[in-house]
């Protein structure tokens, strides 16, 4: 058993956050080629004629979700509930989300748009029901829910692309989020999905 696993206690209450539902609520049913390219690190494609007001709006929805993820990890880090090895992993995952945020903000500005502003920590704490986080497992359960929602959101847009390259970029993003979820679910000792094809459904 690893140091990380021994530091985890069993999860209690789960908090269900669906990122794909947030995209839908914002009227975004697919991410554009430019949006996916930017998230995958290809900034030059964002400056092509594919970039549009819709692309900026889509990127801002994604940016809002990255702001949320960053602040969720920050809430966990500041809670005093995370033991040292767990805290290190949480900070690493937060760093990945900060890299997504920075790429999104740069792309939105490159397209002539205005990046959506980050909310206050108090607003994120209320939206994420942070007052219910009473243990390390509660914090990690929240993070796992956010990561799974992100993986499903990115998987959900793959069928929209004719380009294999763009589909691959979306898949890489989903894999990043799935990796986060897998680590968190493992240390929480959550059961593996019983059936195949459980993501993106």
Report on this structure.
The protein is mainly alpha-helical. It has one domain: Up-down Bundle (Ferritin). Helices cover 64% and strands 0% of the residues. The protein has helices at 3-6, 19-25, 33-39, 43-46, 53-78, 84-110, 121-127, 136-157, 164-187.
What key phrases describe this protein's structure?
single chain, 201 residues, mainly alpha, Ferritin, disordered N terminus
Give me a quick take on this structure.
The chain is an all-alpha fold. The chain is built from nine helices and no strands. It has one domain: Ferritin, core subunit, four-helix bundle (Ferritin, Up-down Bundle), CATH 1.20.1260.10.
Order of helices and strands: HHHHHHHHH
Give helix % range: 55-70%
Mean pLDDT: 75
How far apart the termini lie comes to 32 Å
What can be said about the biggest beta sheet? Answer: none
Number of domains: 1
Global Rg: 17 Å
Proportion of beta-strand residues: under 5%
Detail the poorly predicted runs.
1-18, 20-30
What is the CATH fold-level name?
Ferritin
Which quaternary structure do these chains form?
single chain
Structural class: mainly alpha
Instruction: Provide the CATH top-level class.
Output: Mainly Alpha
**Overall geometric form:** globular
Number of strands: 0
The named CATH superfamily: Ferritin, core subunit, four-helix bundle
The DSSP helix count reads 9
CATH architecture: Up-down Bundle
């Amino acid at each position: 058993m690893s140091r990380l696993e021994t530091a985890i206690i069993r999860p209690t209450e789960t908090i269900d956050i669906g990122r794909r539902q947030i995209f839908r609520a914002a009227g975004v049913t697919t991410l554009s080629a430019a949006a996916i390219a930017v998230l995958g690190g290809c900034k030059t494609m964002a400056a092509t004629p594919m970039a549009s007001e819709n692309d900026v709006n889509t990127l801002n929805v994604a940016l809002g979700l990255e702001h949320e993820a960053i602040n969720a990890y920050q809430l966990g880090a500041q809670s005093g509930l995370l033991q040292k090895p767990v805290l290190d992993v949480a900070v690493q995952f937060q760093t990945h989300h900060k890299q997504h945020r920075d790429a999104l903000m740069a792309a939105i500005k490159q397209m002539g748009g205005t990046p959506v502003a980050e909310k206050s920590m108090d607003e994120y704490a209320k939206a994420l029901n942070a007052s219910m986080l009473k243990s390390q497992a509660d914090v990690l359960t929240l993070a796992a829910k956010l990561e799974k929602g992100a993986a499903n959101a990115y998987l959900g847009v793959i069928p929209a692309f004719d380009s294999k390259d763009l589909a691959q970029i979306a898949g890489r993003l989903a894999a990043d989020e799935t990796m986060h979820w897998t680590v968190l679910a493992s240390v929480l000792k959550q059961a593996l999905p019983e059936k195949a094809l459980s993501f993106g459904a």
